[in-house]
Design a protein that fits this description.
It contains eight helices and eleven strands. It is α/β, with parallel strands linked by helices and 246 residues long. The protein has two domains: 129 residues, D-Maltodextrin-Binding Protein, domain 2; 96 residues, Periplasmic binding protein-like II (D-Maltodextrin-Binding Protein, domain 2, 3-Layer(aba) Sandwich), CATH 3.40.190.10. The longest helix has 17 residues. The chain starts with a helix and ends with a helix.
Length: 246
Amino acid sequence: MRLALGALLLISLNGAAAEAPLRFVVPDSWAMPMVQFERGRPTQGILYDVMLSLATQVGVPAQFHVLPRGRVQSAMEHGEVDVRCYAAQSWLPNQSGDYIWSIPLWTQPDLLVSRPAPQTSVVPASLPRQSIGTVLGYSYPTLEPLFDANQLLRDDARNQEQVLEKLHAGRNRYAVSNQWSLDWFNQRLMPEHQLLSVAVLQEQSVGCYVRNDPKVPVQRILRTLVRMKMSGEIDDIIRLYIGGKP
């Protein structure tokens, strides 16, 4: 009898361990089409859908931790969260801790964007001194030397959508945006009023990374991300929000 109870307890504990949620970190600076927040919690968006599908296919519940951007890496290092998506190793040159990176899942260009204007392209280094719309806490390697030299000035907003709203309202002549956010924002505008990309500042591949912890199903997570990418599921999710070719 005692052996039977012990076996049942072991099965119960194993089941509980298998059901431990996969904890995703979500920077509060994200905006649609990446993530939509309602009452401070993510409810939809490209990255939300990818993370939710990932957890479902791994076979565990998804848990989302919304944090200020400056707290994200600290939360990973202290084991408060398990997975961070939409990140590049070049963004984290001094990353401490033991992590395993996924394959590249997305390629996102940083674009210099303007309101409709006659010019078709712009050389940032040739711009006269002025404010450029940027996201608070984001790094823009191509523009950093110009910011450091005080040739261009940052005009920070809390998230990418606010940056584009300020540009559309005429607060700035130029702003920086990723392609997804620009496409999403332009969907609400008539063609003649849509914001335009006038320069590609940089382009890099981004993916997810996972804490290398025995309590985290690291290899299942990484294999699942490979399947989601190779099957076209991730690209289908992107098309759901911004249409066209990802």
